[in-house]
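Thought: the user asked what Mitochondrial sodium/calcium exchanger protein isoform X3 looks like in 3D. I have the sequence; next I should run the structure tool and report back without guessing.
Action: structure_tool
Action Input:
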Amino acid sequence: MTSRVVFISVLLLLWCHSRHVLGSGDSGTGIVPSPDRSADGADLLSVGTMVGTHSAMLRQGSTDECDIVMNLSAADRCAFVKATPDCSMEDSFINYLKMAFCLLPPNLTPLTITLCIIWLLILFIVLGLTASKFFCPNLSAISSSLRLTHNVAGVTFLALGNGAPDVFSATVAFSRPHTAGLAIGALFGAGIFVTTVVAGSVSLVKPFTVASRPFLRDVIFYMAAVFWTFIILYRGTISLGETLGYLGLYVVYVVTVIVSAYIYSQQKHSATRSSVQSSTHAPGDTHVPELQTSESDQAPLLSNGSIQEGYDSEYRPLLPYCESTSSILLNSLNPVDSRTWRRKTWRWRTVKILKMPLEVLLLLTVPVVDPDKEDRNWRRPLNCLHLVTAPLVCVLTFSSGEYGLYLIEGQFPVWALTLLFGLFLSAIVFLTTSNDQPPAYHLVFSLLGFVVSAMWISAAASEVVSILHMLGVVLSLSNNLLGLTLLAWGNSIGDCFSDITIARQGYPRMALSACFGGIIFNMLIGVGIGCLIQMFNNEPVVTLEPEGLLTWVLAGSLGLSLAFSFILVPLRCFHLGRAYGIFLLLFYAVFLLVALLTEFGFIHI
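Observation:
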């Protein structure tokens, strides 16, 4: 609840700041508009004056030409946005800068900003909903079909599922020349948020003793990733070898986790075997040795799938019932369970009603395979419909629909060809399968669901980055601040509540492991993949220019929080109590205060 209040408070603060910035921008400062305007809002003389002015300002150190639009008069901003390449936003479906300055009159720009913030909240809901209900289940099905161990699945597929919004947002931001600050702010901001607020909340909810070796391993690897990123930011450039080094470091981390888990299991097995042998050779001793397992290896006696299966078995009909194809389709598209609906509060029902259109849209386009269910979630009419809608989503969301709208030989669009191909596959599957028995190739639908949900997440992340870039331009805020607040909080609040819930259920070690494992994956994969994409599109060497003092405040605060964890936790014998949790929360509050004072110029060099 506290995180939600902080998130909403910052949104209100940004809205009030937008009123102030826009009001001061309309007061007459900037370029005086030309009296003889053309029909589209600016003549050649006005545009030439603006280009000359912004070129002079760029020579003073600015890298994004679009940042100076607020220095112009309100009447000239639309023409400047249309004439400046950096304001094009080609990677998103909507040009939010044109919408802010050209869609409505200048006096209604705060209304446009408010609508964009509401749309930003909806996009965060799409990110969380897609990752939790569609992306993660399909990843679980893929890992089950590949027969991966829990350790391998945890540091690969599970990490990708939990960090999908962060990774996709960072990848999109790093792949664009002028939004890398968003990725840096989001990755560093999320790292500080997770290692202080989330870890501190877990310690407050359930004080516990952390597993020493996994904790030190994760902290050391994360410190190495942060230090590497700090060096690259200090140099200002990153080469192909260094980018591959990010991915290589994560491979080393995965191998270390697997090897350490194997060594631990062997030691535990040998200790158990020796204790059993000693008990059998001891005369008159009938004591059965207890197996010493760490809390992180324990699991509930009943998994969620078995609980749900036992619960659903009470409602199974006594006589066999053959459900029609149309009823299967309608029931599959219903995101509300009537039994769950009756048990929940009115607040949960209100949120559910608001999310229902998004859930129905995702149910229509993303197949989900559940290996825990008897029929593996096979819904014949809906899965056949997925063969039509899923490829369409892929071609229409990839590269903002550029390839989907491409005309083959100038006549036939790619999306129409994809539609015909999907209808052909759907007809074959529908005619060769039944409603009761899933086909042998049903697991292929998990791959399709993985790809389509990844495309949805990528498209939503691209829009989030574009909106935050627009907010940074309009509100005269740095990308770092928007990244460490809105983008980091929007992607991390869901993980925060999940980890606190896991801690309340009695598994605080599992919650803390999820904290560090996820941010290591986000840092290494997000930076590595994002810079690789930019290298393939532009130059072999990517330039990463720090956006002022706030970048170093971010890096220094994250390094300091990790240093505190690396020193204080072993000194406390790896026990995380409520006092340490309060210390972490106070540390984040001080960091946030220093970051805001730095952004608004109260702290400067």
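Thought: the tool returned a structure. Summarizing for the user.
Final Answer: Structure for Mitochondrial sodium/calcium exchanger protein isoform X3 predicted. Strands lie at 208-209, 237-238, 407-408, 412-413, 542-543, 575-576. Residues 32 and 73 are 7 Å apart (CA to CA).
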